[in-house]
Amino acid sequence: MPTQRAPPSLAVTDLSFKFPDGSAGLTDLNLNLPPSSRTLLIGANGAGKTTLLRLLAGKRMAPRNTIRIANVDPFAEGLEGVTYLGLEWVLNPIVRSDISVPVLLASIGGDAYPERRDELVKVLDIDLRWRLHAVSDGERRRVQLAMGLVRPWTVLLLDEITVDLDLLSRANFLAFLRKETERRECTIVYATHILDNLAGWPSHLVHMSQGRVKQWGSMESFEKEAESGPNTGNSLLGELVLKWLQEDLDERGPRNPGTEGTAYLSSGFGGYGSEKKVEE
Ligand SMILES: Nc1ncnc2c1ncn2[C@@H]1O[C@H](COP(=O)(O)OP(=O)(O)OP(=O)(O)O)[C@@H](O)[C@H]1O
């Protein structure tokens, strides 16, 4: 008899990670994201979001006993049901070849899930007559999302892959993801800088800075703090994120302290005018 799987929670315990060059990637991360949660991973460029997602996805090896998904150690027992959609997936050359949408969707097993396949084609407004070498970037991305999501995952790790979608397509896509967490047991962690249409979407937030989790919790737990944001006309979520990013920048300080705008010169880069002309 197959063993009953626990609901898809994500637990990170005392996770530290160094890159192969010895530099610190992540330091002392602790998180506990419940099943059916929709978590936004928030942080400035370089905060460590992709590094964390890749570890959760098993793309990088995490130290033992630091990650549990659905209450199992995925490195010891496998990562069944975890889908990671990030940059390397986006750059897969197959989606630039002269191939039709139905053939592409069938090639990744879409015919085994006809209802999901047809729903995704509708939600993402995909024209089944498209050939992938002759579509726009956003149209290609929509087909890729359908490919990535057609198999019913239990944990979805999204590393900002909706940048090419128009506003309506992205809103429909986000609504689809929300519906997924509401109609079946599945959990989403989404790293993004684009907060359009996201007010009211996440159930949890994780705030990362300089390879650490600064704070995490349910949306309700941040309500008060969000009200003290800078008030720039954004949603409360937008104001909260602006506040966090400004605090992180103030804490970190400038990347090239003491150079007062001469960083290019002191690093040996003589300014834009000094760039070598590319041979034509
Ligand atoms: N292979 C690597 N070796 C050494 N350092 C790395 C490596 N990959 C990433 N880093 C560094 O780790 C830090 C975190 O990178 P990461 O890609 O996780 O950030 P991020 O929060 O996803 O940023 P962004 O929002 O720009 O995508 C960065 O300072 C980056 O330079």
From TrEMBL:
<protein>
    <submittedName>
        <fullName>P-loop containing nucleoside triphosphate hydrolase protein</fullName>
    </submittedName>
</protein>
<dbReference type="GO" id="GO:0005524">
    <property type="term" value="F:ATP binding"/>
</dbReference>
<dbReference type="GO" id="GO:0016887">
    <property type="term" value="F:ATP hydrolysis activity"/>
</dbReference>
<keyword id="KW-0378">Hydrolase</keyword>
<dbReference type="InterPro" id="IPR027417">
    <property type="entry name" value="P-loop_NTPase"/>
</dbReference>
<dbReference type="InterPro" id="IPR003439">
    <property type="entry name" value="ABC_transporter-like_ATP-bd"/>
</dbReference>
<keyword id="KW-0067">ATP-binding</keyword>
<dbReference type="Pfam" id="PF00005">
    <property type="entry name" value="ABC_tran"/>
</dbReference>
<keyword id="KW-0547">Nucleotide-binding</keyword>
<feature type="domain" description="ABC transporter">
    <location>
        <begin position="10"/>
        <end position="235"/>
    </location>
</feature>
<feature type="region of interest" description="Disordered">
    <location>
        <begin position="250"/>
        <end position="280"/>
    </location>
</feature>
<dbReference type="InterPro" id="IPR003593">
    <property type="entry name" value="AAA+_ATPase"/>
</dbReference>
